[in-house]
């Protein structure tokens, strides 16, 4: 958990450094691409498209909207 | 919201305000999850709110950036409520995937109007942001699998210390007294809420 919190802070610091010149929406956009790229091998290992099926689509969508 | 706040405020200030998540999540849990909260947790919520006010409004003029940080904190609390609803059935990787997918789709439509070609240095920072976000999710999931949330979650508050260190090292900025005081109050009330919730879970 300590490492996770350190990672959050490092992300915040990097976002602040980039945020001087780049819009928050661009930072969010690129962050999403990078995280999705890192997630794909994990998702593939966990079962691919079948793994992504959700029992609570509406709730999942609302949660994701908090972006 | 947090990214907007980081553009305008020191990292430590945003981090202090963001620590109010358990306080807002407790209130949202009462409204949406119909959780019953006793007087002890109510008192912790009220004290926590005082901490937030002290942290964001030191001179009577609330900065717009603080409102961004507060908005981000409330949205994060809403996410916590949805995670509680989803948590029992959905895998954390799936939750992160959909969060990032929606994030990608929504922000994609803004890019033609605001995209600025990044330099090589900025590309490294962008990848760093994504990598840090990915590692955060993995490490938090791993931590929560290994130990109860009531033990693990209070470590979130160490973020304030990290943020103060980075603010000082990179921008030579020190937090003002009211930010520290607000941070201490928010931390104490947040830890109390975690502990109390854990105790009640054991009793049930």
SSE layout and pairing:
The complex is a heterodimer of chains A (67) and B (204).
Chain A lengths: L1 H18 L4 H23 L10 H8 L3
Chain B lengths: L1 H7 L2 H8 L2 H12 L6 H18 L7 H24 L4 H17 L2 H4 L5 H27 L2 H4 L5 H14 L5 H27 L1
Helix pairs in contact in B: 1-5, 2-5, 2-10, 2-11, 3-4, 3-5, 3-11, 4-11
SSE succession of chain A? HHH
The topology string of helices and strands of chain B comes to: HHHHHHHHHHH
Helix segment tally of chain A: 3
**Percent of sequence in beta strands of chain B:** under 5%
- Structurally, the number of domains of chain B stands at 1
Instruction: Tell me the quaternary state.
Output: heterodimer
The N- to C-terminal Cα distance of chain A equals: 23 Å
Helix share, percent of chain B: over 70%
- Overall mean pLDDT score of chain B? 80
Structural features, described:
The complex is a heterodimer of chains A (67) and B (204). Chain A has one domain. In chain A, 73% of the residues lie in helices and 0% in strands. Chain A contains 3 helices and no strands. Chain A is an all-alpha fold and 67 residues long. Chain B is built from 11 helices and no strands. The mean pLDDT of chain B is 80. Helices cover 79% and strands 0% of the residues of chain B. Chain B has 204 residues and is mainly alpha-helical. Chain B has one domain. The chains are: A mainly alpha (67), B mainly alpha (204). At the A-B interface, helix 1, helix 2 and helix 3 of A face helix 1, helix 2, helix 5, helix 6 and helix 8 of B.
Quick structural overview:
The complex is a heterodimer of chains A (67) and B (204). With 67 residues, chain A is mainly α.
